[in-house]
Amino acid sequence: MLTKRIIACLDVDAGRVVKGVKFENLRDAGDPAQLARAHSESGADEIVLLDISATHERRATLLDTVRRTARQLFIPFTVGGGIRTLSDAADVFDAGADKVSINSAALTDPSLITCIAERFGSQAVVVAIDAKRSETGQRWEAFTSGGRMPSGRNAVEWAREAESRGAGEILLTSMDRDGTGSGFDCELTSAVADAVRIPVIASGGAGGAADFVQVFRAGHADAALAASIFHYGYNQLAELKQELVRYSIPMRWPC
Amino acid sequence: MIAIVDYGAGNLRSVQRALDSLEQENVISSDPGQVSRASKIMLPGVGHFASTASLNRLGLQKAIMDALERGTPFLGICVGMQWLYQGSAESPATAGLGILPGCCDRFPAEVKSPHVGWNSLQIDSASRLFRGIESSNFVYFTHSFRCPVGDATVACCSYGATFSAAVEREHLFGVQFHPEKSGETGLKVLANFCAL
């Protein structure tokens, strides 16, 4: 049976993991390569590395980080942040990424999705959508530039277009829930997951195991991503998976 | 020396990193002579079935067939496995090698496509590729087309319907999943191939 994926996300700035990290059980939890490996060993189904600096002068640092992280990682590895061109994507693949995640650049120029998919295959293209609920309720707008700029695009329609242009997966972040630990936005997730045929990764709001159960059942998510909750301790991820098994969510466990 | 065939498609580096971690001497090559002389051949592949057409154009198809005739162990991964069949609905104009009967086709409409993620296998206990690996283990898939189950199938996977996740016939092997991305289980599959 195809399992639901638990994806660990590393937010990286200038070669170091930055967001919501407590270093207790690791010698150097700030090192992306080491942290990725630790997550993989404790049961992560996939690793996403998001470069949140993504300034031009830091690209070389990012590629070096990707290279070091990929070397000892034998599970799927996605890299995002600041990928604006086919050549940016090619550099990241060359450094060892299996997939790239593109967000703002795809909204600015949707043909970038097709361009990367034709060269590296749809399975290698994740379109990330940062969605914010509108004041009128059951409608979400896609934002760019790390959630700073409204795009004017309806998130569900944009997901559909991304699929038709060759995206292999959608990484859907609820801006309303991100960092709150109050649970995933299951209405947003199911609205997108039901509108496309490609897998949808839910992100934003992960707190406890019950949130993951909800997003897989009510949100129809194929995978769920979290960052900070996995960094607190070495076995956090393993414990989450065991808990989800008890809820009868299909999991890759034991790994 | 294991040759990882480079035909301009597929994530060769991740396969190479997996072989490096198993301390297996390997080379990424698009040179038919080098491929033909290798002790073992691996054909990775992600992306479109049409890309396998370049194997013929680059003289690599003949090199692989010559090596197969001499008994060189061969492992096709993902599209590299699909290529062993007669063809694929993904690119009807592109002929496969046709060593295995049948064609690859789409998943049924009721399941999401591509099939992305970790799925379990039903493994034939006589398989050499899966020696020491149990059916409860999971491996990582990412593909939109699936191979039919046949005499050479040694592992089945279920997604919408049953498809062939691995084939084995004498020294010919193929896996639809990505052993280089399937954690310890995947590395074990590769180690079994390397140990042949």
Explain briefly what this protein structure is.
In chain A, 35% of the residues lie in helices and 23% in strands. By secondary structure, chain A is of the alpha/beta class. Chain A has one domain: Aldolase class I (TIM Barrel), CATH 3.20.20.
CATH level 1 name of chain B: Alpha Beta
- Taking the alpha carbons of the first and last residues of chain B, their distance comes to 13 Å
Helix count, DSSP H or I runs of 4 or more residues of chain B: 6
**What gross morphology of chain B would you assign?**
globular
- Find the CATH superfamily of chain A: Aldolase class I
Question: How many helices of chain A does DSSP assign?
Answer: 10
CATH class of chain A: Alpha Beta
Helices and strands, with pairings:
The complex is a heterodimer of chains A (255) and B (196).
Chain A: E1 5-13, E2 16-17, H1 32-41, E3 46-51, H2 59-71, E4 77-80, H3 86-94, E5 99-102, H4 104-108, H5 111-120, E6 125-133, E7 140-144, E8 149-154, H6 155-164, E9 169-174, H7 186-193, E10 200-203, H8 209-217, E11 223-226, H9 228-231, H10 236-246
Parallel strand pairs in A: 1-3, 1-11, 3-4, 4-5, 5-6, 6-9, 9-10, 10-11
Antiparallel strand pairs in A: 1-2, 6-7, 7-8
Chain B: E1 2-5, H1 12-21, E2 26-29, H2 32-37, E3 40-43, H3 53-57, H4 60-69, E4 74-77, H5 79-82, E5 87-88, E6 103-106, E7 115-120, E8 122-123, E9 138-143, E10 145-146, E11 153-159, E12 161-169, E13 172-175, H6 183-194
Parallel strand pairs in B: 1-2, 1-3, 3-4, 4-13, 5-6
Antiparallel strand pairs in B: 6-10, 7-9, 8-11, 11-12, 12-13
